[in-house]
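Reply to dn_fold:

You asked what the input looked like. This is it:
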Amino acid sequence: MINEVIADAKDRMDKALEALRHDLMTIRTGRATPALVEHLMIDYYGTPTPLQQLATISIPEAQQILIRPYTRGDIQAIEKAIAKSDLGLTPTNDGQVIRLTIPALNEERRRELTKVVNKRGEEARVAVRNIRRDANKDLTDLKKESLISEDDQKRAEEKIQELTDLHIKKVDEIVKEKDAEIMTV
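and this is what came back:
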């Protein structure tokens, strides 16, 4: 029972880290990456569909994203979705492909993005701490039902705290890496 609680907490904390990594991939750093646009929702005949299901996305140059729709009829819908998104990118379309040029970030925009990264890092830390709280509550419930001893509960809580510390340290590392990537000119 204790091992199940600890395994569940570890699994949920790992998922919180993965969600943070995925979330930070969508933040523009001045370099082109398919992650910026691949999950952009396109209105495909009335159904919101991720861009990666409608087109191939490639990076021909460090500052450019090339989107090649599988069918030509989708170009207008993709272009409209990109223009409406909060990416701040202007699509250019030659009838067959859409090109997105990633402008270099100025100092002020870099500082804004580091604030966003730090905010998302803090949200991930809070998520990890909430998982710790839930796991400790489960252990307390097991103790109340006399399914585990008080000593077992204390040892398990220490293990969960170690897991929490490890995951918060990883969150800090991820945030620090992304900050460095954003501030690199």
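The chain has a mean pLDDT of 88.
Hope that clears it up.
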